[in-house]
Design a protein that fits this description.
Length: 775
């Protein structure tokens, strides 16, 4: 069978010999299988595929077509696995592998580099393209399933080729109560079953169902067991047998339940019907962290999914949402919805720093700055954005740099081993285990691990020290591979010789390295925990119990709501800790409460709070700023250096009244503010410094007495008439005075003749809410 891409073979070869090439072609046109083989005329070819399953299946298919052993002419390299030699002509690799090779030798083993499915706009593909453009030592082929290649062409100054492909008509049907209904997760497996039953009545080919993840695939498979069809599950990390059943035509009609791996990267034969849930799991930024969320797909993805049904015959596409659902136009590139920490570190290892590279579009400034700040903080990059020796050690490791950094901070080899085993589970994208649900299983687990600690649990799991726990074998195998590789990188004993560790020391070491991972329980109905910046809720998949008042949170995921306020972050790997640890690490904020004098020594009472929670109160002998706060409190109460407090308060009020009367600008100081400055000027740092101060040293006197005293005599701040004390408030511009009752038994208002002479002023008297003119 002649593939559509073959129409441009001659032009492709001629163009590639002279310049970079951007090829736009529909999925299934043959670009991923033909272009690498044609490009061999220019030398050894590296093909970068966004997904592992595409790497392995494409290499296996081409090797089979060439009737050669895998790894001989055609090979692949993915994490933990590779089949190629130095003589292999075409090697398929994932972006992560290719970036590490670039770090080692700038891909000097290859002459041509092809970046396939670039329209998916992963951050690692963006970075690889920027590095290769800057290095300028390879002939580049960039492919895209969309026609919007103009930015790419301008960026690389490349030639462009297009293959139309062949597309049969596809009928669209929408199953929704409302024409504007958005994709929804509710009753999804039941709606998939109904759509599959409808599809089986309308098509003789295979049915491809797009679902957001493995969990939804498993749930849907359970609903389809009654169908007269072969139900196949296809997702990243699925077992090889399911992958083989999906990628090869079978004798029985198939229902293939797949994630986005089937959207562009893989060709699945004989599909005549697509059922589109309209959902995907997509990353986005929350509080500076990358979280995975369930989202509606964009219109470009919807178009790609429909195209799967019209490759070889007229097809049918059943959408499980409304025809006019307001989907976004395009899926945002990863650089706009993920943390850029890994990108910035990779750039620091492989170039002169992230700012030395020209990207196809500018990196978001806020995300880039946050990444630079984080990596600088852990000393993984220097001031010039280049990787330090620590950064170069962290970067090649198959885990997030922040997690790898944790291993390097552990104070002993035994704690490093424990940390390695824990982050190995954190680094697996799939669910590794499922906690027991029956009371008998829970009791048995609690006897083995009584601390209700997820960290202890995963370490024991990787070390094969637990029994009766439900695990995903492939995911656990990957976690153990991570552990084995990290143990080699950090020169640690093999996993089978793992050392025992002190749990409390491990928890304290993690908290010291990552204090923002400490959360305390908040007093709200949701049982949420906070750290002063963000809030999390313990997920169902955690061993933390209701009695926990504080915890270290090592992993989270987002649960979407209808808006930002309803979105929740669920904490999945948690470590219960004592509130005392927060205080011991000095993480809380100290708040001065009061002061007293005990045995002629000043004592200060203060509280420590963290994330709004009061942790404790303490009475200590203060020094420094805390001593000044205590002195101010005691002076204002008249218990220290009396009568300084009373004099300052009175004098400040008199001065401010004088300035107000004369229209002179003045700074309205409080007594506490004045004392703060005065005590600092006097050098108060320790208790013995107080003995050197006399009350009059603190008195406030900005104006000469001969100038201020006559004015205050005419304009007193308080007036006392026998048993009546009143406060006086002046409005010099309005020529008004208000006397406000303070104390006394007198019932009637004062008479004007009883008061000081205030010529030209209108006087009022206020008692409670009643105001009368003084006559």
């Amino acid at each position: 069978m002649t593939l559509p891409i073959c129409a441009i073979q001659s032009e492709f070869l001629t163009t590639l010999a002279k310049e970079h090439v951007v090829v736009s072609a529909a999925t299934g046109s043959g670009k991923s299988t033909c272009l690498p083989l044609w490009a061999r005329e220019q030398g050894r070819v590296l093909v970068i595929e966004p997904r592992r399953i595409a790497c392995t299946s494409l290499a296996e298919y081409l090797a089979q077509q060439a009737n050669t052993a895998l790894g001989e002419q055609i090979g692949y390299a993915i994490r933990f696995e590779h089949h190629f030699t130095e003589h292999t002509q075409v090697v398929f690799a994932t972006p992560g592998v290719a970036l590490r090779w670039y770090f080692e030798n700038q891909l000097s083993d290859y002459d041509v580099v092809m970046l396939d499915e670039f329209h998916e706009r992963r951050w690692d593909m963006d970075l690889l393209l920027a590095l290769l453009k800057t290095h300028n030592q390879h002939r580049l082929i960039v492919t895209s399933a969309t026609l919007n290649t103009k930015p790419l062409i301008n960026y690389l100054q490349a030639a462009t080729l297009h293959s139309d492909g062949k597309m049969f008509p596809v009928e669209e049907r929408f199953i929704a109560n409302d024409t504007r209904a958005m994709p929804s997760k509710y009753d999804l497996s039941e709606r998939v079953r109904e759509a599959c039953e409808q599809a089986l009545d309308n098509t003789e080919g295979d049915i491809l169902v797009f679902l957001p993840g493995k969990g939804e695939i498993q749930a849907a498979a359970g609903q389809l067991s009654h169908l007269n069809a072969l139900v196949v599950r296809l997702y990243g990390g699925c077992n090889p047998e399911q992958q083989r059943l999906a990628l090869n035509v079978q004798n029985q009609q198939r229902v293939i339940l797949a994630t986005n791996v089937a959207e562009t990267s893989l060709t699945i034969p004989n599909v005549s019907c697509v059922i589109d849930s309209g959902l995907e799991r997509r990353t986005h930024l929350r509080g500076g962290k990358t979280v995975l969320n369930l989202e509606a797909i964009a219109k470009d993805s919807a178009k790609q999914r429909l195209g799967r049904a019209g490759r070889t015959q007229a097809g049918l596409c059943i959408r499980l949402y409304g025809e006019y659902a307001p989907l976004i136009d395009t899926t945002p590139p990863e650089i706009h919805r993920e943390s850029l920490t890994e990108l910035v570190l990779a750039a620091g290892c492989s170039s002169g720093g992230v700012d030395s590279l020209e990207f196809i579009e500018p990196l978001p400034q806020a995300s880039k700055s946050a990444a630079i700040e984080q990596l600088t903080k852990i000393k993984a990059i220097d001031a010039g954005q280049r990787a330090t020796e620590l950064g170069k050690q962290l970067y090649p490791l198959p885990v997030d740099a922040q997690l790898a950094y944790l291993v390097s901070t552990m104070p002993s080899k035994s704690l490093q081993q424990a940390m390695v085993d824990a982050i190995s589970v954190l680094s697996v994208p799939a669910r590794v285990y499922q906690l027991p649900s029956s009371s008998e299983q829970i009791d048995a687990l609690n006897k083995q691990l009584p601390n209700h600690c997820d960290l202890e649990f995963v370490i024991a799991l990787v070390r094969d020290q637990l029994e009766g726990v439900s695990v995903e074998n492939d995911a656990l195998k990957e976690a153990k591979q991570f552990s084995d590789q990290l143990r080699i990188a950090f020169d640690l004993p093999e996993r089978k010789h793992a050392a025992s560790y002190d749990r409390n020391r491990l928890v304290e070491a993690i908290a010291k390295a990552k204090p923002d991972w400490l959360f305390v329980k908040r007093n709200n109905r949701r049982g949420a925990f906070g750290n002063g910046k963000s809030e999390v809720i313990p997920a169902k998949e955690t061993r933390i119990n209701d009695k926990c008042q504080a915890m270290l949170v090592l992993d989270t995921y987002a649960l979407a709501g209808k808006g930002t306020k309803q979105a929740m972050t669920l904490a999945t790997m948690n470590v219960p800790v004592s509130l005392n640890l927060v205080t011991a690490l000095g993480l809380g904020e100290q708040h001065f409460i009061d002061a007293t004098v005990i045995n002629e020594r000043i004592m200060a009472k203060f509280s420590t709070s963290y994330a709004g929670l009061e942790l404790n109160e303490q009475l200590i002998e203060p020094v420094g700023q805390l001593l000044i706060d205590a002195c101010i409190s005691l002076i204002l109460k008249g218990e220290l250096l009396a009568p300084a407090g009373e004099q300052i308060e009175q004098s400040l009020a008199e001065h401010q009244l004088y300035y107000q009367a004369h229209g002179t600008p003045f700074e309205a100081l409080t007594t506490a503010q004045y004392l703060q400055d005065k005590l600092q000027q006097l050098g108060v740092e320790e208790q013995d410094d107080i003995a050197l101060i006399e009350p009059q040293d603190l008195f406030y006197q900005a104006l000469e007495p001969w100038e201020l005293a006559p004015f205050i005599e005419k304009h007193p701040l308080h007036v006392k008439l026998n048993d009546l004390l009143m406060q006086v408030e002046y409005s010099f511009t309005g020529k008004r005075i208000q006397l406000t009752y303070v104390s006394g038994n007198r019932k009637d208002a004062p008479k004007k003749w009883e008061l000081p002479a205030w010529p030209g002023f209108k006087v009022k008297y206020k008692k409670a809410s009643k105001v009368v003119d003084v006559k």
